[in-house]
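Loading example: each entry is read as two labelled lines plus one structure line.
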Amino acid sequence: MKSLMTGNEALARGAWEAGCLVAAAYPGTPSTEILENLATYPEVYSEWSTNEKVALEVAAGAAIMGARSLAAMKHVGLNVAADPFFTMAYTGVNGGLVVISADDPGCHSSQNEQDNRNYAPFAKVAMVEPSDSQECKDFVIEAFELSERFDTPVLVRVTTRICHSKGIVELGERREAGVREYKKDVKKYVVVPAHARERHVVVEERLRSLREYSNASPLNRIEWADRGTGIIASGITYQHAREVFGDGASYLKLGFTHPLPDQTIERFAAGVDRLYVIEENDPYMETFVKSLGIDCIGKESIPACNELSPQIIRKSLLSDEPGPLYSVDTAVPARPPVLCAGCPHRGFFYALTKYKDVVAAGDIGCYTLGMAPPIGVTDSVICMGASISGAIGMAKAAERAGRKIKVFGLIGDSTFFHSGITGLIDAVYNRGNIAVAILDNRVTAMTGHQENPGTGVTLMGEVTTQVDIEGIVEAAGIKAGNIRIIDPYNLAETEKAVKEAYNSTEPFAIISRRECALLKDVQRRKRGYCLVVSDKCKKCKACMRPGCPAIAFKDGEVVIDASSCNGCTLCLQLCKFNAIVKVGE
Amino acid sequence: MVKSILLVGVGGQGTILTSKILSAGLVELGFDVKMSEIHGMSQRGGSVSTQIRYGDKVYSPSIGAGEADAVVAFEKVEAARWLPYLKRGGTLIVNDQEVYPLPVLIEKEKYPSDVLEALKSTVENVKVVAASSIASALGNARAQNIVLLGALVNALGLKDLDWERLVREHLPPRLHDLNVKALQAGLSL
């Protein structure tokens, strides 16, 4: 049977067909749908882990116990999970262990475009790179086989354009792999220095076997056609290259990309006149090709920044620019992403805009948009969890400079569970004079409403314990008198809490709690919307200051779009002339 | 021969569902199909795009500037923004709808009043569709995406397929009547 599938759907299907029994991930674009799809197969235990390190450790534990297991994450997630990743390379596995890294060339939804192919040689593990949905399915199955055959974790490296593109996939059946026998083996799984030194020798021997396999692997294939031009490519760039050069070139299509196949590359290079290495971001393959003493054209022509496309390759290698393009003279306004109408973050952010001497360290989530006008309160966003810990450093440095500022750390509920808790403990322990705001919208919203430890439901839909944020805050050592739990739809209450936090000289925490306005349940319960009473409106536009996308100034009137208004009443509370009313409740 | 179709709009307008139905139909018609959608931050009211390529054999899912045989804009300003992607002589289908972006709402930028005129005077092959009004008249403006699907299927000459069944397969039963009517309205444009 054939099906049109995204790369992520196909990766999940491949894991299922391969008999995977345990899968774990933390949501992150472009990887999120891998686990969402795996969770639809009842044979696979699937979980949202609290972060990527936990996810990889859950999968690693299951692999040690003998089950085929998988961890999936976005590229920066592998930084978080790097610790177990490097050491699992030493211990090896029992049941197969597959780690999927979904990279984001072009930073469609990410803070950097790091090239995680570099992790494979760094950790000394095997790596495969599918180039379309069919290969996503096939390569995951192969990755499980290789993991068990060579006793290594296998990195499956994909990119946004693979994850989120659909292609036709031939479906297969599930082959149960069972759970292998578990035998205690401390020399393998307890990496005290004496064992680790021995394991390192095993790792180097394994690399030699993997290199031999790479030269023989069906995942690395030569497609001979015109021998004037030879192209080495992997992943999506193979598809782009085929689009540009068609049968006017020969291809070395690499699917098993660590270790790279030295003999195959030498054979291919000897058979063509001119050799191009086409790859996104880093010169990962090019550096290796050059290390073999082979001359090739790569990054001197092809950009290291941003995603590639057939058009960019055509321009870089063939100096072929598109012809005259259509355009209109009309100035086109920008359309940046915005906080939604009724977003609970807006009320909290608005309260914070009152202070000109506040520096706010933000974090990763919808509320990253606290940096955008007209709110613009956020000063920095680095990585998951860096709001609280970054705020500590900012406050310490500002104290030493004698700067009179107050530092806030702004973090979401899921991000707090992911890596905010350690920062909070650090703030208490090291007496960081900061205010922490946990913007608790009761869901992992940015990536599309995933469950998290605060929601009381698991990825597989089971009801579970709701982890208590205020309990954690208090247990971390924030004094009970320095904790406020507020509803950001109540502006007076929010402003009061922000003021108290601002004035505090001790670690202070505000839990700003209100469900995401777009949650299905919230939408179902939604009652009423706001509208402007035009004869009372003085057109002062105070209601527009928080930048709600449901409010516009059109033809000389302030109007609220009833269909997009979610009835949060922030605008109503800002109106001094009672010109906004809520109706339809 | 490979055809490239670009669907552009504003997060929440239903571009993704439209491209799902279109791709499913193209597969049934026996084409190789690749469809690429980029989502993430753009879902929060930002500019969104879906790329669909179909033919005997499709390699890359990506469409570059000047390469789209058809561009379907679910919003007027998005038509102007993505216009350079339209191939010379290609077809532009544009929904006669305005969705103000935030910079316009907060009066930092202006929403242009002359977009449709500018598009009509620049592109030979423009079809303006009042999809939102048509869908409203049928019962719900949200069905505008299916009106546009109908108009696109028509423009691509792909009417020889039971698109009504595909629309039904992709939507819950309570929305079938509305969307089948929306499809018919689009197909007849």
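Residues 345-522 of chain A form a domain with the Rossmann fold fold (CATH 3.40.50.970).
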